């Protein structure tokens, strides 16, 4: 009986490390019965965000509350909403609605997405690459193929069934600029 108890305790101890290794984002749930693909797929609303952009010695900060982005200094406001429909088959649709004028301007993006493999310190499936294949605004549609497709890479800090937190951080040397921020998507 003591041998069975020791084996059970050892299996639970080793299993806890195996479950922890499935956790990709630092703030992901400890245990999820849904795969990362199943958690990422769904209908999402960009609901909050904050960050900063620096160019030379000038820094602007921004916050977004799900309807209005405010940039300081200057208290510039930009009114918009953005939704995402992420499919398990590797396609997506994003709808950006500009509400700065009396008539909303809707732009629809479609494309493909996939998790990135791990490289260096980046864990496997902790980042997503999105390729935009069409951008439609009003009656105008722009279509992209191959390497000309606009591409976005997002680092996922938290991937839950009802909430995704994305971290962006980057810089360039010419001209000297950098940006960092977080964006929260909530399930529709």
Describe this structure in words.
With 188 residues, the chain is mainly β. Mean pLDDT is 87; it is low at 10-23. The relative contact order is 0.18. The protein starts with a helix and ends with a strand. The protein has helices at residues 2-22, 36-40, and strands spanning 42-55, 58-64, 68-72, 76-86, 91-98, 105-115, 127-137, 140-143, 151-159, 163-172, 177-187. Strands 1, 2, 3, 4, 5, 6, 7, 8, 9, 10 and 11 form an eleven-stranded antiparallel β-sheet that branches. Helix content is 14%, strand content 54%. The longest helix has 21 residues, at 2-22. β9 and β10 form a beta hairpin. The protein has two helices and eleven strands; from the N terminus they run ααβββββββββββ.
Write a short abstract of this structure:
The protein has helices spanning about 1-20, 35-40, and strands at about 40-55, 60-65, 70, 75-85, 90-100, 105-115, 125-135, 140-145, 150-160, 165-170, 175-185.
Overview features:
188 residues; globular; 14% helix; mainly beta; 11-stranded antiparallel β-sheet; 2 helices
Structural class: mainly beta
Would you tell me the overall average pLDDT?
87
Percent strand equals: over 45%
String of helices and strands:
HHEEEEEEEEEEE
Annotation field: number of helices: 2
Topology:
Layout: H1 2-22, H2 36-40, E1 42-55, E2 58-64, E3 68-72, E4 76-86, E5 91-98, E6 105-115, E7 127-137, E8 140-143, E9 151-159, E10 163-172, E11 177-187
Antiparallel strand pairs: 1-2, 1-4, 1-11, 2-3, 3-4, 4-5, 5-6, 6-7, 7-8, 7-9, 9-10, 10-11
């Amino acid at each position: 009986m003591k041998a069975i108890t020791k084996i059970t305790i050892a299996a639970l101890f080793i299993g806890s490390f195996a479950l922890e290794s499935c956790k990709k984002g630092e703030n992901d749930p400890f245990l999820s019965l849904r795969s990362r693909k199943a958690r990422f797929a769904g209908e999402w609303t960009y609901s909050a965000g904050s960050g900063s952009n620096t160019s030379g010695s000038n820094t602007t900060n921004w916050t977004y509350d799900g309807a209005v982005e405010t940039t300081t200094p200057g208290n510039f406001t930009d009114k918009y909403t953005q939704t995402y429909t992420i499919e398990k088959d590797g396609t997506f649709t994003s709808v950006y609605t500009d509400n700065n004028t009396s008539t909303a301007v809707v732009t629809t993006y479609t494309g493909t997405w996939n998790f990135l493999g791990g490289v260096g310190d980046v864990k496997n499936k902790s980042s997503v690459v999105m390729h935009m294949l069409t951008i439609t605004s009003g009656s105008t549609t722009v279509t992209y193929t191959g390497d000309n497709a606009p591409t976005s890479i997002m680092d996922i800090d938290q991937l839950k069934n009802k909430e995704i937190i994305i971290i962006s951080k980057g810089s360039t040397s010419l001209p000297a600029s950098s940006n960092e921020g977080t964006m929260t998507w909530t399930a529709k």
